[in-house]
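Weekly sync notes, structure subgroup
Attendees: PM, AL, DS (notes)

Item 1: joint prediction request from the bench team. They want all two components modeled as one assembly rather than separately. Inputs as received:
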Amino acid sequence: MNDHVNIYKDVSLINKKSKAAFKIISLSNSNDRNLAILNTAEIIKTNINNILAANEIDINNAKDKNLNNAFIDRLMLNGDRINNIILGLINISKMDDPLGCELARWKQPNGLDISRVSVPLGVIGIIYESRPNVTVDAGSLCIKSGNTVILRGGSDSIYTSRIFTQFLREGLLSANLPSDTVQMVDSTNREAVSAMLQAVGEIDVIIPRGGKSLVEKIQKEARVPVFAHLEGICHVYIDSEADIEKAIKIVVNSKMRRTGICGALETLLIDKKISKNVIPILAHKLRAKGCQLKGDEETILIDKDINLAFDVDWKTEYLDAILSIKIVDGVNGAIKHIEEYSSHHTECIITENKNTADIFLSKVDSAIVMHNASTQFADGGEFGMGAEIGISTGRIHARGPVGAAQLTSFKYIVRGKDQIRD
Amino acid sequence: MNDHVNIYKDVSLINKKSKAAFKIISLSNSNDRNLAILNTAEIIKTNINNILAANEIDINNAKDKNLNNAFIDRLMLNGDRINNIILGLINISKMDDPLGCELARWKQPNGLDISRVSVPLGVIGIIYESRPNVTVDAGSLCIKSGNTVILRGGSDSIYTSRIFTQFLREGLLSANLPSDTVQMVDSTNREAVSAMLQAVGEIDVIIPRGGKSLVEKIQKEARVPVFAHLEGICHVYIDSEADIEKAIKIVVNSKMRRTGICGALETLLIDKKISKNVIPILAHKLRAKGCQLKGDEETILIDKDINLAFDVDWKTEYLDAILSIKIVDGVNGAIKHIEEYSSHHTECIITENKNTADIFLSKVDSAIVMHNASTQFADGGEFGMGAEIGISTGRIHARGPVGAAQLTSFKYIVRGKDQIRD
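Output from the run, pasted for the record:
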């Protein structure tokens, strides 16, 4: 009980420091914020060995806990990965200032000059699993957009998160900005997460980064708004008027480039008019890459080595080298399947017919809809946002990749000439 | 217990019908939606007597319950008020389509053509007190923006709400759009509100319209996102470089035009350099209009007939002919007071010095910041949004007046030329 009270008090204190820092960082100028980001890059560069040493503690602890190799690989830093983090910081520092943008401006008949101008969002809470780069990505995107951030990383990366947080804070100080712009909840107590999720009025938005069970728990418990996606059950539809060669290239990339990311293809829909031509070639290519195939009854009639897919398959985000295939009746059949099973993350149509593409692009209600491109592009970096803090499938405020611009709110500025209202 | 189960089931059924209607209205074209709105106006026009009769039942019930005159006045319809409702509908029908707008478009170095396009938000729940116009305003704004709406009005206006809901549904049907785009929770059971507030995944956003206690309850209970403002503790600051005559005109209008609206002035801040000149003239003008004055210790030294204000006064939204006055040290003193006491709704500076105005406009963190204009303009209609469904002081998604454009989300459309990701 005392622990319970203490962790809530600790988190609340962090939140209050964050709100105090927000009053300063939200009004700071972009040169200072960019300098803080560049200085952090510099500090990281001169401390690579210290970072590797901190990371090694996390790695050794993970090995002692017999965590699996994939987990340890995600957790591990090396020179290349740190260089990518540094490059990310430099990129973010070069991006346009997302604050003070005139989003709209108009004049009313009575002469009132009204504009809508972007302002920082507030105090952002990030709850993430043990991925070392998230600390720096999230921290720098929040600095860029004049927000403050409270980081709560997974306990298995706590040494790595701690050293990166420290460098972000040093970067801020070196630019005369408040170090509390970036804070870390330095506790492995799980109640710290609950305290953050209930901090209405102290934290403005929570962004979870991690697997489905983390996000599910957060969406269920949170009283604070959440930007998140639960899963990416992404679809590609190959239309009868697709260029088959290009289609196969896009499907193989969408599925196999990296199977573990949320933008990876999970269910392939094929127009019945071309299924007999496409499936044999595609199955061959995908099997050669190590992909396991499942299909509906019509699909397995075409290729007997494809296993039968069950209803659960259409609802599953494999995040693995497995693809479910369904034969549908044209673009409307594809849209119908997507409406029923999609997680509204990313869906793609492959066709040479622009009208069919337009039907798909307008009717499919997902955060990202694509025409003739790999679903693996569903990513803030690939969208030109510099980096992303997450991807949202919600409809409120942010949808799709969440970059610096999505971490802003706005206010109305009304310039008058002494008008009064009748 | 059975009643409890039933009302949750009833509301859930309404929510599901709303989601089904959303699939159609969200893809409808704007001519049809505008036609539905215009037809509703026409139906209202030919049914004025029926509306007045329904409203009379509500009025009589309210009188039987000994509700006060102000309440009954807000509840009452007459020919003029119905005409205003009709004009509102015509205005909304003429506004630009908020859907399908290209909010941004850019090309990535690899040739991907990315655009962000506005789409409807989803299922909107409106919980409101007994104001008859809200049914039509909210219903028509949701139709305009391709959303569906679930209306839960106060029990004291149920006959009036019911007949307006019926006419909105008839208007939709006459334009071949689903009548379930507009539904009403036709129950005075308070648990219906709780059921709506907990409908995560069924209702996308809740917008309350009503007094502080209603909004407070909703913000506390809601699991669904809420667009709202709790109160409007609006400030006007008269700078030492203000034109005194204009300042007095703006202050009197901001306070006294209508004292009961959220954009009404509650606390006046005056630069100490001019307080001795301004307060006597202002006090005279305001008293002549029936306004009661309170002031800090310095203020009452200037005018002994002003009552002393206590700390609670700076935190009070009077919504009445009462004004609290504080003398501050320049624009920074004003900003400091606003930071501490404002509800972040609307604040205004009166000054002829553009630099001072710019400091105020950029530093004050409220949904609406004004220069030389009455705070009574803080209103969607006055902002040119046609009508408003509410005003939000939150930072997520909608801030300030919420019109049709604020009831949209967006999606990304990515047009490729067979790009795959490295």
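Discussion: Chain A touches chain B through 60 residues (CB under 8 Å).
Action: AL to compare against the crosslinking data before next sync.
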